[in-house]
Design a protein that fits this description.
Blueprint: E1 2-6, H1 12-19, E2 23-29, H2 32-42, E3 46-48, E4 64-67, H3 90-103, E5 110-116, H4 126-138, E6 142-149, E7 160-167, H5 205-209, E8 212-213, E9 216-217, E10 245-248, E11 251-254, H6 257-263, H7 276-285, H8 289-306
Helix pairs in contact: 1-8
Length: 312
């Protein structure tokens, strides 16, 4: 099955679908460093640029569209502006692409969209209601949605995300993947020897371990067995109530980019060609590979039941 991937980042969502037997024929992101990482791991079919500026007629024919459209407009970590934020309108660009393909008699069989958990409750549910209305009533898809947690799919990271899976076939009966037991901890994913630059200095350690100041206070904990959600701004080293820190050789340190990659389900063969700062951003924004693969397998099962799966 041929996939068009939007907002691909470093390729977490794509990686899961590739593992499940799909073929990514075209991908896009506007971050040049993310595209650099994607190319190093998946090939040159990724296009650098703003999807709003890419002519619809240049997009190839595909079976499935996947995309983790920008979440900042709906995230509790941001200002929660939703569709008032220009990044929020990128959902409507997805709709434009699908409408164009429908007009060309090339309606995608499936759409798989990913976003933050709070998308479902943003603006008292109005934002999500608008999205579902577009998908169901304007584009004609049968829509299934839920929240999936990375920790329920074999990776020790608490990361809840909204998944929206849409089928063109109204007879589709889709079930999201069953949870699987968590058999590892964050400590199992740590590297044995890391550069001294990842260890915290005695000067910054009290700030990192503090429970906050003023009107914002939260419990700071380190050495958690299940990691806190990775965030795109890890390079800034937030307090331990937000970021992940571990003890090694009697000293406290931050996670390395490779450890962050592991916490997103990427294999150790995954190439990290960018700086630590860019790597933290990419893995903080990434879709967890194991969750993506589980969803991809469930989509495949549904397409097979409908007689619509092909290996092309």
């Amino acid at each position: 099955m041929k996939i068009l991937s939007l907002f691909c980042g470093c390729g977490g969502l794509d990686n899961g679908f590739i593992n499940s037997g799909y073929k990514i024929i075209w991908a896009n992101d506007f971050d040049k460093y993310a595209v650099e990482t994607y190319k190093a791991n998946f090939g040159n079919h990724v296009i650098l640029g703003d999807i709003n500026e890419i002519p619809l007629e240049t997009l190839p024919e595909f079976d499935i569209l996947i995309g983790g459209f920008p979440c900042q407009p709906f995230s509790m970590m941001g200002k929660e502006m939703g569709f008032e934020d220009t990044r929020g309108t990128l959902f409507f660009r997805i709709a434009e692409i699908v409408k164009y393909k429908i007009e060309q008699k090339q309606k995608p069989k499936v759409l798989v969209l990913e976003n933050v958990r709070s998308l479902r409750t943003h603006d008292n549910g109005k934002t999500f209601k608008t999205i579902k209305n577009v998908l169901e009533n304007e584009l004609g898809y049968k829509v299934f949605d839920t929240v999936l947690n990375t920790a329920d799919y074999g990776i020790p990271q608490t990361r809840n995300r909204t998944y929206i899976v849409c089928f063109a076939n109204e007879n589709a009966e889709f079930e999201f993947p069953n949870k699987m037991p968590l058999e590892s901890t964050l400590q199992d994913l740590l590297e044995n020897k890391v550069d001294k630059k990842y260890f915290l200095s005695d000067t910054i350690l009290p700030t990192i371990l503090s429970n906050g100041t003023g009107g914002y206070k939260a419990k700071s904990e380190i050495d958690l067995p299940v990691a806190r959600p990775l965030c795109a701004t890890m390079a800034k080293m937030h307090r331990a109530c937000q970021d992940n820190y571990v003890t090694q050789e009697g000293r406290v340190r931050r996670l390395t980019p490779r450890e962050c990659a592991r916490l997103q389900g990427f294999s150790d063969e995954f190439i990290i060609p960018v700086s630590d700062s860019q790597a933290y951003k990419q893995f903080g924004n990434a879709v967890t590979v194991s969750v993506s693969e589980a969803v991809a397998n469930s989509v495949k099962d549904t397409l097979k039941r409908l007689g619509e799966w092909n290996d092309d």
